[in-house]
């Protein structure tokens, strides 16, 4: 058993199996574990997924939201223990893999069409 196989087996143990299938354009609510002193709580972060990168244990999503008139983006590692939950609030219908053009848009121009899937 070489080093790559050992690393692959350790990574396979860390993968989460309860994640929903997230697509670019979806509005998601990510529950982030936050430590304050010796207490821990889950803080929701809701926004639109504008990018997905990598694969496997390194898979990340970039979530963008508008907070007090300023665009805020956060990158979440999907399989991180800091992520308590991911809930899909709304499915988005987009035609590109990255939605970086939303950074230049303001107000109603940032809306993404809703996708209505059968069988969700």
Looking at CATH, which topology would you report?
A: SH3 type barrels
Strand content: 35-45%
The CATH class:
Mainly Beta
Total number of distinct structural domains: 1
Structural class by sheet pairing and helices: mainly beta
Total strand segments: 5
Mean pLDDT: 94
Approximate helicity band: 10-25%
Strand ordering within the main sheet? 4-3-2-1-5
Question: What is the rounded distance between the termini?
Answer: 41 Å
Using the 3D structure, state the CATH architecture. Answer: Roll
Low-pLDDT segments, ≥5 res: none
Overall form: globular
Main sheet makeup: 5 strands, antiparallel
Q: What's the short version?
A:
This protein has 120 residues and is mostly beta strands.
What does this structure look like?
The protein is mainly beta and 120 residues long. The chain has one domain (22-105): SH3 type barrels (Roll). It is 10% helix and 41% strand. It has a 5-stranded antiparallel beta sheet with strand order 4-3-2-1-5, with no helix packed on it.
Please give the structural blueprint.
Blueprint: H1 3-14, E1 27-36, E2 39-53, E3 60-67, E4 70-77, E5 83-90
Antiparallel strand pairs: 1-2, 1-5, 2-3, 3-4
Key features?
five-stranded antiparallel β-sheet; mainly beta; 120 residues; 41% strand; SH3 type barrels; 10% helix; single chain
């Amino acid at each position: 058993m070489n080093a790559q196989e050992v690393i692959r087996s350790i990574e396979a143990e860390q993968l989460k199996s309860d994640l929903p299938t997230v697509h670019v354009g979806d509005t998601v609510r990510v529950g982030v574990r936050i430590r304050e002193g010796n207490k821990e709580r889950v803080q929701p972060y809701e926004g639109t997924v504008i990018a997905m990168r990598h694969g496997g244990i390194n898979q990340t999503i970039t979530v963008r939201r508008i907070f007090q008139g300023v665009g805020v983006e956060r990158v979440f590692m999907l399989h991180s223990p800091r992520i308590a939950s991911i809930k899909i609030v709304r499915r988005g219908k987009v035609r590109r893999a990255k939605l970086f053009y939303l950074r230049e848009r303001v107000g109603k121009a940032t809306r993404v069409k809703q996708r209505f899937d059968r069988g969700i």
